[in-house]
Amino acid sequence: MTPDLLAAFALFAFVSSITPGPNNLMLMASGANFGLWRSIPHMLGIGVGFVVMVILVGIGLMQVFDTFPIAHTILKVLSAAYLLYLAWKIAHASAPSEGGGEGRPLTFLQAALFQWVNPKAWSMALTAIALYAPDRSLMAVLLVAAIFGAVNLPCVSSWTLLGQQMRHVLSTPTRLTAFNWTMAALLVASLYPVLFTG
Fold first, then answer.
1. What is the pLDDT confidence band of residue 99, given thresholds at 50, 70 and 90?
2. CB-based contact 128:144 (threshold 8 Å)
3. Contact status, residue 119 vs residue 194, Cβ threshold 8 Å
4. Tens digits of per-residue pLDDT, 49-62?
5. Of 25, 91, 117, 193, which has the fewest beta carbons less than 10 angstroms from its beta carbon?
6. What is the DSSP letter of 61?
């Protein structure tokens, strides 16, 4: 990868990682409801899960969609169903009680596995491999995954910090409920580009 292409890819990785999407909206809700510390496994799960996804897409999974186009439709349906379920959970989340906590954030494994039904993650991985590792050589795929990992984790973590900073504003049950319903609605809205464009 040439220096110019590397710079272009780093910018692509930053913009696609920092902009709103299911991961970032869920992390902002997690930061607001549970704080930064309890959301760390969720953040790490996204970071590691997405890097693994990029590698597997690059070394062969991309061909599945080329060979079996129905797989893409099945993925869309599963992704939409799971995101609707997560939106429902966020809408009905409550802040943990002082005595132990009623709710809990996503675990490392749940967040890592979520990448496989996250439409934005699929779009990012497929685009990155197609544009920046078109030969799909192992070294090119690993470089794309490594850069994405280095850029993605700080970006998604910033959304958790934003959510945590909002906690003082969301100190009443009414405000927290309104925030959670707003995050749930935005999560559902994030399905629009996947289901109704292209």
1. very low
2. yes
3. yes
4. 999 999 999 988 77
5. 193
6. I
